[in-house]
Amino acid sequence: MAGKQQSEYAEILLSCIEEKYFKDEIALEHHSFARIISGEMKVIQADKTYTFGPGDTLLFPNNQLSTLIKNPKDGQPYKAIVIFFTPQRLKEFYTKNLIQFTIGNKHTIKKYKKNPLLESFFTSLIPYFDLESELPPQIVSIKIDEAITILRSIDPDIDSLLADFSELNKINISDFMEKNYMHNLTMEKFGYLTGRSLTTFKRDFKKAFNTTPQKWIIKKRLELAHYQLSEQKRKPIDVYLETGFENLSHFSFAFKKHFGYSPTEIQ
């Protein structure tokens, strides 16, 4: 189905944010293929921060723990077309097409240069969002197959990502949490991404850090914020979202409670 932002089940959707900003913590279940139409999206991950703007085309691999901050810009709302590649769709595609595995693929965000195939494809999708009824399933299938075919023509390594149907395995909890504590996810989601049930996640976390996940995460976020304020000379308004806090007042309260002085006193 095709849909707009409010549809939770659409495989092709138009994301539109007209507010000051929209923040979300994600670890997408499916690979997503997106074109930014207007506005700006910042993607914060453990090892890198990306900024995307109008005309940018990207492929977002599944299970990438990220903070997304979407902003209107230059008087325009944030708008993006997003296509989700579900395992069912991908398996159907690769039963009809020979997989070309390579060793060059990495499980990271891919940004693609302008290409006539990409321009034509995303332009063809825009009129669908004016439909009052759902997009016919046959057209959805055609457009998703077209998207995969285009990616295969411009990215020789893409099959190694899209045709990888392996399951998440249990990973080192200490390494994972040290890289991803700034993301606001439920304990269940942290457990899933480390290959554990909630009970096993809490048990293994206690063994690794000798405290609860909630206490450890807050402490780490505050320490990161303190570093950015004191060493990088950033402002509290620019720090609180990226370090995992939902609003500035809560950040300021927690910061002063932990350190004994407010974020603004550092400067």
Topology:
Layout: E1 2-4, E2 12-17, E3 22-26, E4 31-38, E5 40-44, E6 49-52, E7 57-60, E8 66-71, E9 78-85, H1 87-96, E10 110-112, H2 116-125, H3 137-154, H4 159-162, H5 173-180, H6 187-193, H7 198-209, H8 213-230, H9 236-239, H10 248-259, H11 263-266
Compose a concise summary of this entry:
This is AraC family transcriptional regulator. The protein is of the alpha+beta class and 267 residues long. Helices cover 40% and strands 19% of the residues.
Which CATH first-tier class of the largest domain would you pick? Mainly Beta
Gap from first CA to last CA: 51 Å
Could you say which structural class the secondary elements and strand pairing correspond to?
alpha+beta
The count of DSSP E runs of length 2 or more, i.e. the number of strands, is: 10
Helix content: 40-55%
Contiguous runs where pLDDT drops below 50 for at least 5 residues: 1-7
CATH architecture of the largest domain: Sandwich
Gyration radius over CA = 20 Å
